[in-house]
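Onboarding guide, step 5: your first structure request.
Type a short instruction followed by the sequence, for example:

Predict the 3D structure of this protein.
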Amino acid sequence: MINMVQAIINIEDRTNKILSVIKAKYGLKDESEAINFIVAEYEEEMLEPELKPEYIEKLKKIEKQKTIEVGNIENFRKRYGL
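The system replies with structure tokens like these:
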């Protein structure tokens, strides 16, 4: 179940018109769905990966992996042919 929060917001007339266009274009039932849609799109395209929950899960998996000791930069270069 998704928790919902009610909010009263002040938006410009142009923003309201854009919300209405998005609502109509994607067949959304109200402006709240339009805002949720826009935020989801923003998250996909603009948020830094480290802020996404999927990235946190990926990091947790990586942290559980066995580490490789390389010592110093010389050993690193030797090991990886750099």
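Each response can be followed by summary notes, for example: The CA atoms of residues 30 and 70 lie 57 Å apart.
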